[in-house]
Structure of PCRF domain-containing protein:
Amino acid sequence: MAEFDFTQAIGEARAKYESIARALDVDRLKADIKDLETQAAAPGLWDDPENAQKITSRLSAAESQLKRLNSASQRIDDVETLVELGHEEGDQDSLDEAQSEIGEIQKDLDQMEIQTLLDGEYDERSAVVTIRSGAGGVDAADFAQMLLRMYLRYCERNGFKAKVMDTSYAEEAGIKSATFQVDAPYAYGRLSVEGGTHRLVRISPFDNQGRRQTSFAAVEVVPLVEATDHIDIPDTDIRVDTYCSAGPGGQGVNTTHSAVRITHLPTGIVVT
């Protein structure tokens, strides 16, 4: 068995950390935290609860990100010191502990590296995932339930808070559909790649002749956005047309402009 190369492993971990720190721009992150702390300390912050929630959430996420970066740097320094002591004293237990710690550091750095790639508009938001069984009968319903268990297990292993909001069970086995919400930083960015049609080919456990069955299930992933009480639409984006109604309805129906049609110009949506 080849001897573990501590120098190479620590060097790779430090190089990956420095790459992540550059991508996240530590100086900008610290400046953002300082600015958010100032906003959070404003006397009238909670006069607008919705805005206050946004500020405190952003502050918490930024502080957590900086803490993870600082922790990773400190852990690399500590494990390097542990390796040096282990070699000097010939302590194999210390070296085994250092090897295990390097493995954990690499896992954490891998997770942080993924986060640097999630820079989409909604990537940092929570996600709502809907699974629907497709073609394939009972096998498809069973496949949909397998996907649900897989995603919930993924959330559990990664410490994401997941809540099943709705489940429609199939008659024989599996589910027709299910919807669950994942509350975690960058949940949408991580799960959005799962959207689309999934296919499973296997020997069907529901076929007494043991034939191969192809099953399909659709997965839809959408970001969780804040609810709003109203939406402001500029007057310049709307065209209002009035005209006479057609058809029966009394003597005035064809002589008064009682029909109104509103067109939203940017999208072409028409309401009559």
In short: Residues 98 and 243 are 80 Å apart (CA to CA). The beta strands are 127-133, 161-169, 175-183, 196-203, 212-223, 238-243, 259-264, 269-271. The mean pLDDT is 85. The radius of gyration is 28 Å.
